[in-house]
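Example record

The entry below shows one chain as it appears in the dataset: sequence first, then structure tokens.
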Amino acid sequence: MITSDECRANALECERMAGIACNPVEKVAWAQMAEQWLRMIPKAKALDVGKSEAAEPVPATHPTKV
């Protein structure tokens, strides 16, 4: 799954590409992709939280053998 940090990084890369594109159609396409990545951040953050909660260790209910 993609994280909010990855969404943000992808958006920044798309913005960078929009800034260097010479073709106006390409500029718009890159800018639109950046907007889409930014819109995904809230959902990715929710997934980040769910993933980190699921990754927390569960306390042992019985002693482990050594």
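Notes for this example: The chain has one domain: 4-53. The two ends are 36 Å apart (CA to CA).
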